[in-house]
Amino acid sequence: MNTIQFFAIAAVCYCIVAMLLHLLKVIRLGAPKDLSEASGSVKKGVIYSNTRAMMPDQKESAFLHLPSYTVGMLFHIGVFCSLLIFILSFFPFFNNWISSCKWSYFLAIPSLFGSICGVILFIKRVTSKDLKVFSSIDDYISVTLVTFFQMMTTLYLAFLLFKAISVIFYISAILLFIYIPFGKLRHIVYYFSARFHLGFFYGRRNVWPVNEDDKK
Predict the structure, then answer these.
(1) Which of 87, 139, 176, 192 is most buried, with most CB under 10 Å away?
(2) pLDDT of residue 57
């Protein structure tokens, strides 16, 4: 392990501890309290909240903006794949494999598309009058850091032999992990608590899962 990898691991550890503190805050608030008589299943509601309810046709307006929804999905897929590559980069066998196998370039496809989508989202946020109204500096920083991380993941996979690329790749990860606990990227934790509360509320009231027959 070299020096830059050591700092990258330190940033990850810092991020994990900080996010666990956020999680503890959520847990201390306790589970939702509802004194009304249940007419549905909380379990089914929570499952639906994290699966079918995330589809664009189940959202309030996402089905009206399918291109933006698709860009957002590709952006998030790229993030998850980039994080996986980051973890694997600490194992010599993985680096040896991507250095010798020509097919390893396909691993860069998710992060490549993710970074392109990140640029599109950034430009849209800058140019759209509607988005400008409720955009903060945190929105711009978050998108920039995540997009930069995906860009460097793509270059890392394509040009592993260039040491400078590897260094910048780890620097992009360090910046991202240090910033995560401070901004909107904290939704890594709050997303799950929010979806649980939604599932609890609407599941208990027998609103979720949605009965497709009732919608006709």
Answers:
(1) 176
(2) 83
pLDDT of residue 39: 87
Q: Where are the domains of the chain?
A: 3-30+60-184
Name which of 214, 206, 202 is nearest 49 in CA terms: 202
Give the chain's residues under pLDDT 70.
161, 212-216
Q: Which of 67, 45, 46, 43 is nearest to 56 (CA)?
A: 67
Residue 149 has which token pair?
């991380």
Q: Phi/psi at 87 (nearest 5 deg)?
A: -65, -45
For residues 196 and 47, give the distance between their C-alpha atoms in angstroms, rounded to a whole number: 9
- Reported as a single tens digit per residue, the pLDDT across 131-189 is 888 889 999 999 999 999 999 999 999 887 688 999 999 999 999 999 999 989 998 88
